[in-house]
Amino acid sequence: MDALKQQLKELLVEHLNLKDVKPEAIADDQPIFGEGLGLDSIDALEIIVMLQQHFGIRLTKADNGPQVLATVNSMADYITTHRK
Amino acid sequence: MALFIHGIGSVDPAPALGHAPEPAEARAGNRLHAIEPNYLDFIDARASRRMSRIVKMGIAAAVQAVRGSGGGPVDGVVAGTGWGCLEDTVAFLQKLVVNGEDMLSPTSFIYSTHNTIAAQVAYHLKCRGYNNTFSHRNISFESALIDAQLLAHEQPAQRLLVGGIDELTDTSFTVLSRLKTFKSQQPGGPLDELYDQGTPGTWAGEGATFFLVSGEAGPTARAQLLAVRTVSFGTPEKAAAVARQLLTANQLTWVDLLITGENGDQENDAAIQRFATDFGHSGPVHKFKHLCGEYPTASAFALRLGAELLAGTESTPRPADIPRTILIYNRFQQQHQSLMLLQAC
């Protein structure tokens, strides 16, 4: 699980071009959007594409998005549960 | 309707205008690169993380133009770009191929549209007014200027940002090289070796140039643009006739300086010589594409050069050589020609 979280952090930095953020500086329970990393709705779309590309995960219900994408922890949980 | 130029900003291969760009910085064979500033002086890191190079170039040029005018709000943004945001377009198309038309990045798509630059400039400057982008090959910038003239005619006090922006990417350089747009010889001497080679092709260039203009003069006005005209699919003699009409309409009988868009291509330059002969100009002539290379909105670089010469901020051999009137004539290939008539304030 820790390896998955580390991979997610590295992918977030790479895909979202977060030049000033080091992957290890992102806390597992840190909010990704708003006050946390300060990401926005376009980043949410990029993360959805990233999850599909790297983990084969499709977010089928849009309503689940805010919960699933809230933190590295919530993304890792969702991937672990839904990965085939 | 005259447009008064109050501020100028530019990111191109020749920040110092008439002074030759440093070869190591700006020249790579047949290609002139824009010398880019430290973008953190213009855009904060978080805002710039999605921006491609051309968007940053455009914002930096626009901010410089606003600062040069003494600051203040901007009422509208009008941009011209012949090539658009190539870097993001290429990134989007590559992902389209690599990912089998699936899982495409929304950022590359959003940022690939031609209006991205003007939109980001407006967003950055908190300008909620008029916003438009013209993409008409090598008269894109002139089309933006004509639109700005119309806006100024309606409300002369409006402060408008009008600019021309084009970037060259490795992909577009390769494609245009295959189309024989650029010279096959590798230059190594002085920059003006571009001319008089008697060979086809030119040098590649790029740049972003913005002007803060309004329909009203004032203490910050550096020059006034009396007229802009485009002549499509006409002969150089037709353009010369239009130029003479412009002079007459503005109560002028000659201009002190002619700035021409010769680019080293033998066919293009022969057409410009025909224009100059037919126009009957006997005074000095300046060329500019050895400084910035060829790109669809290179005429914005020429307007910058002309405005700085009129304002006396670009060096001339003697103060008496500072012109009072300038005509800029540009053309590329056989399609579009443009004329811009400038006068000192």
Model description:
Chain A: This is Phosphopantetheine-binding protein. The complex is a heterodimer of chains A (84) and B (345). Chain A has one domain (2-82): Non-ribosomal Peptide Synthetase Peptidyl Carrier Protein, Chain A (Orthogonal Bundle). Helix content of chain A is 52%, strand content 0%. Chain A has four helices and no strands. The radius of gyration of chain A is 12 Å and the shape is globular. The mean pLDDT of chain A is 90. The two termini of chain B are 15 Å apart. Chain B has helices at 23-26, 45-48, 53-68, 86-98, 106-111, 116-125, 140-154, 170-178, 236-249, 266-279, 289-292, 298-311, and strands spanning 3-11, 27-28, 31-32, 76-80, 130-134, 160-166, 207-214, 223-232, 257-260, 285-287, 325-332, 336-344. Chain B has twelve helices and twelve strands. In chain B, 51% of the residues are buried. Chain B has a ten-stranded mixed beta sheet with strand order 5-4-6-7-1-8-12-11-9-10, with helices on both faces. In chain B, strands 2-3 form a two-stranded antiparallel ribbon. The longest helix of chain B has 16 residues, at 53-68. Chain B is globular, with a radius of gyration of 19 Å.
Q: What is the β-strand count of chain B?
A: 12
The Cα radius of gyration of chain A reads: 12 Å
Please report which band the strand proportion of chain A falls in: under 5%, 5-15%, 15-25%, 25-35%, 35-45% or over 45%.
under 5%
Write out the CATH superfamily name of the largest domain in chain B.
Thiolase/Chalcone synthase
Question: Largest beta sheet of chain A, briefly?
Answer: none
In spatial order, strands of the major sheet of chain B run: 5-4-6-7-1-8-12-11-9-10
Q: Classify the fold: give the CATH topology of the largest domain in chain B.
A: Peroxisomal Thiolase, Chain A, domain 1
How far the N terminus sits from the C terminus of chain A, by CA atoms, comes to: 16 Å
Overall pLDDT of chain B, averaged? 92
Overall helicity of chain B: 25-40%
Through-space gap between termini of chain B: 15 Å
- Architecture (CATH level 2) name of chain A: Orthogonal Bundle
Return residue spans of chain B where pLDDT drops below 50 for at least 5 consecutive residues.
none
Biggest contact: A-B, 12 and 11 residues
What gyration radius of chain B follows from the Cα positions, in whole Å?
A: 19 Å
Order of helices and strands of chain A: HHHH
Q: SSE string of chain B, helix = H, strand = E?
A: EHEEHHEHHHEHEHEEHEHEHHEE
Q: How much beta of chain B, percentage-wise?
A: 15-25%
For this entry, what is the oligomeric state of its chains?
Answer: heterodimer
Top CATH class of chain A: Mainly Alpha
- Based on secondary structure, the structural category of chain B is alpha/beta
Pfam families (chain A): PP-binding
Keywords (chain A): Phosphopantetheine, Phosphoprotein
Domain Carrier (chain A): 2-83
Protein name (chain A): Phosphopantetheine-binding protein
